[in-house]
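Sanity check

After download, print the first record. It should look like this:
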Amino acid sequence: VESLRGRNCASVLQRPSVVVQCLLLPPELAHITQRTTPGAPTRSSHATMAEDDLTHVVSKYLDRHLVIPLLEFLQEKKIYKPEEVTKAKLDVLKETNMVDFAMDIHRELYPEVEVPEAMAEKRLTVLERFKQLNKDSKPIIEIFQNPDVLQQIEDKIH
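Expected structure tokens:
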């Protein structure tokens, strides 16, 4: 596993004060850290929830689009620092075509900074591709919107 490269896993696992999230954590979730100080004498419910959180394990097997709702859930539950979850969400979104959402998150994180030009250019590219795909699929959509064709399909199924 890449995230373990150069690390002594046994020593990490033997020291309970070390946040084990460094193991198997996908790069887009690297910002997330526990809200409470590891090894603190009292354990809040947030600390317990953070220790039991499997998002970092599950997310590496999910499509990026499915990781977003998990991060929103974590943000709502306030298990981690909100700005860290928001940064992780932005990192995940950067690799998708959900450019408008990524731009909104960027504005939320950095209100004083203009949206990067690369995001604006990617938005134009995504919109052009969307238009082209709509144009290319229009004949097929028209076929399936024809009531006669739909009836023929239903007759074949039944």
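If your output differs, re-run the checksum step. Summary of this record's structure: The mean pLDDT is 78.
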